[in-house]
Amino acid sequence: MSSAISLSRIEKWFGAGTEAVHALAPTDLAVAEGEFVVLLGPSGCGKTTLLRMIGGLLEPTRGALKVEDKELWSHGVRQGQALSELGMVFQDANLFPWLSIEDNIALPLELKGVGTAERRAKARELTKLVGISGFEKRWPRELSGGMRQRAAIARALSYNPKILLMDEPFGALDAMTRDTMNLELQRIWMETRKTIVLVTHSISEAVFLADRIVLLSPRPGRIDTIIDVPMPRPRSLDVQAGEDFQEIAKMLRHRLAEIS
Ligand SMILES: Nc1ncnc2c1ncn2[C@@H]1O[C@H](COP(=O)(O)OP(=O)(O)O)[C@@H](O)[C@H]1O
Ligand SMILES: [Mg+2]
């Protein structure tokens, strides 16, 4: 089976000489088409570094990285073909305050030269998918934090990438909104069949969302354990009270305490 993402001995150093930081030790990982993988670990274990390298925002010091079977870097240059398969969502929605929700969502399309009518149609389709239909003409400041993150997800999906990369996308939201967004993200993922790699330091978020959890440990960042989460889908928030969920969460809690 071909992989959506494949990392081979990917490694990252920041700086040089005695000041050098070994952010990520040589790492191998393959993410399957349509898989939901969560990167979990304590602060500073290299989650963001790893995700930014997959997203083409940061060049690996060494190693090979393929996205949809295309090399992401070639001779220090990012490859557009691979990049077009990637959409990114960060902790902050990063919407432009002077653009309507619709124009924010369609901005990547505008940059690609897509015409107004087509952009508007795509934005409509996406606001519906992420559950903010009717808010197309509003300003970002008129939306709640959760709704702004929905818009950020819609924007990341605007050019229909196969892969969605998310760095603590719900980390700034209150606990109840976060639960709702986890349910919504599961639904969006099941509807669109994207491949998702999501970073979190929340054990419960990881177990709720993931097909597979990649637990990272720090100094230097590296993969400690990979855990399958076999609970059937769609998962309701009630799975959190179930035995499977509790068992996996407990194991992760103990392992995190050992490696932090
Ligand atoms: N631009 C940078 N320059 C120097 N060190 C960095 C830089 N970015 C991250 N680091 C270091 O790399 C390590 C991993 O950081 P990061 O990937 O942000 O971890 P996480 O997202 O898991 O909290 C940390 O020790 C951090 O201080
Ligand atoms: Mg981080």
Mind explaining what this structure looks like?
By secondary structure, the chain is an alpha/beta fold. The protein folds into two domains: 3-85 and 163-175 and 190-259, Rossmann fold, CATH 3.40.50; 93-160. The chain is 36% helix and 27% strand. It is built from eight helices and twelve strands. It has a six-stranded mixed beta sheet, sandwiched between helices. A hairpin with a 4-residue loop joins strand 11 and strand 12. Helix 7 (203-209) packs across helix 8 (243-259). It is globular. The two termini are 35 Å apart. 39% of the residues are buried. The mean pLDDT is 96. Bound molecules: adenosine-5'-diphosphate and magnesium ion (MG). Adenosine-5'-diphosphate (ADP) binds next to strand 2 and helix 1. Adenosine-5'-diphosphate is lined by residues 14-15, 21, 23, 41, 43-49, 221.
